[in-house]
Records
---
Amino acid sequence: MPHLFDVDDLGPEDWDAVLRLAVCETLGPLLGGQGVALLFEKPSARTRNSTEMAVVGLGGHPVYIQGAEVGLDVRESAEDVARTLACYHRVLCARVFDHAVLERMAGALRASGFEVPVVNLLSDQAHPCQAVADTLTLREALGPLAGRALAYIGDANNVCRSLAKAALLEGMDFRVASPADYTFSAEERGALDAYAAKVGRGGTVRLTDDPAEAASGADALYTDVWTSMGQEEERAERLRAFAGFTIDEALVARAAAGVVVLHCLPAHRGEEITATVLEGPHSMVWRQAAHRQTAMRGILAWSVGGS
């Protein structure tokens, strides 16, 4: 089954296929009235709306399920929830706290003979659907991305991990500017270097603790909130650690003249990004949000064997 846990589940050919399917205007009703389960342990405005509308656009029927409705690993195991949903649905999409839950679900489906793909709508480790939307936005704004520089300023979190792999598949120079305690580990960095070599598209990863260095000459600047859902108790500590890592007009001025600014939202204006940059002429944030639906169209089409 073509499960999608993170971007590196897609080889270069599959990656290109997802992006091609996302913008294809002649896909037709690939889901043909079949159900798609949308299991949400964590709420999200963009993920729910984009996925539901992508399912509808492919002729399917989305069913939104809150975590409390199934009592994941409380009232019923993740494995049993997955097998139950597979009785009714063509695809199982899940937004979870723990990445291992996705792997357990897929393992249970495989062991029980269910041919139902599992799609990661977000976990603590990865956000592949966001990375596809980001790439679609960057391609639209910049054209071919090979050799372009993308600077991520902030916490090297789940969004950053998936974005790094997408950038390597595009042959980009991916730069990460984070405080020392919030950057990729040596093991993660090594895995990304190995992935770049495996992909073979000329992409690179560079780490720094200097936002100005990362932004210098960059074709795109990207950021995310410093305190994600579930990290509220760390907020004060994170605000101190990330002081100086705001994407503001001074940082934009260090980038390339036609720099594109991205943010996966929700945004905390005045923290990771200023209001003037978020609403300014370089911002592609709302186009990026719109491409969440485009991305889900490609991912769902790929997962059911669309061509």
Note: The longest helix spans residues 285-303.
---
Amino acid sequence: MIVQRSQRQKPTTQPRRLLLVLIMLAACCAGCGTIRNAAVRTAGDMFAGEKALAVFTSDDDPELIRDALPFALKTLDVLLVQDPGNDELRLSTAVLYIQYAYAFLDSEADYLAEDQPERARALRDRAVTLYLRGRDYAMTVLDHAHPEFSEMLLPDPDKALAAMGAEDVPALYWVGASWAAAIGANPGNMSLVAELPIVEPVMRKVLALDPDFDSGSVHEFFISFEGGRGELMGGDSALAEKHFKEAVRLSRGQRASPYISLASTVAVSNQDAEMFIDLLTTALAIDASDRPAERLPNILSQRKAKWLLDHGPDLFLEFGEEDLEE
């Protein structure tokens, strides 16, 4: 396991525990089923849930996590094959696939698009594949709780979603968020774009069931959803700003991502350079250490904020040095 850099000088038993679990797994592969299943479940439980995910999201070294995640993801795949009924582990696996695709593939493609368009396209193609893999993992969690949910969702979203309860919100959120991200990463895939009308009712169900979910994550989704579409496409910049205020309130202003979402959608759409700069400057002023469990997402969001400021002249008809000075 990985510990936060600021805590590395402190002794910890977590890496030893993981090593022992892996040794147990190896020793039990050819052993009796009961012992093998217990070892698999023990290993799976170490990776499942918010505390396990925080091992990755609390780190302050993006490159370390980028390099570590592929091995971790395939380890989770192996554990799920051995323990297919472990839905907490399945959802954690879904979240890690989706976050890896966004943080280290999709976002990286933005940075490379101008100078290395072919490399950027390849990264986005990989991101789409992993977004959908994460979506399918989360969808399976919902299918286990509500048999045939995924089969009903496409032909009749309202009927499929009617059975959802508060306990389904985490899986439902990640189904919708990953689906939308896949569509956004490959807008030229018409068969995928045609599924966008499914995403909206999924996320609105999350909003109805738990508007405070994950400190405002569903509001953050709607900042981009409402602000990233023109009025002719059903977008609403005023509504996006309302969701922004809720996202900031629920995260206590300690997340950089809502500011970036509003800046890259509403501010750009309205050609409001002053708003754009103010939002990104606020995002950069956030101390990533104030929210330890989300240190890495904040660091990555602030990297995006810097990139957006550098590319301001490409996004606005009027954007000069005087704007930054102000």
Note: Residues 173 and 228 are 19 Å apart (CA to CA).
